[in-house]
Design brief:
With 122 residues, the protein is of the alpha+beta class. The chain contains two helices and seven strands. The longest helix has 15 residues.
Amino acid sequence: MNNKNDVKDGGLVYSTDGGRMCPACRRTIGECTCGEKKSGPVSGGVVRVSRETKGRNGKSVTVIRGLALDPAALTLLGKQLKTACGSGGTVKDGTIEVQGDHCERVMDILKGRGRTVRRTGG
């Protein structure tokens, strides 16, 4: 028998005291630390640029990995790279994806910013 009071997974979703609540840690959304990624292993300062088509219906995507930046700085760099390449893309899971084959252009931009860049893949 399910009652509306028998909540196993979620719990408190909204409170008049703090607004929206995180169901995992039961803190307000502003104080929640559940969604923040733990700092992953640093890749030795080498940024890896590759072109991938797997899982994208044959369309190529330039993937940039190994940037040890916080999420806000990573999003800003992703926007700048997409603008420089004149295409779309996304920033997710600590990687930047730019639509199309722009490996050389991205590598030149990152080298100009003082990064050590390596081309990976084919």
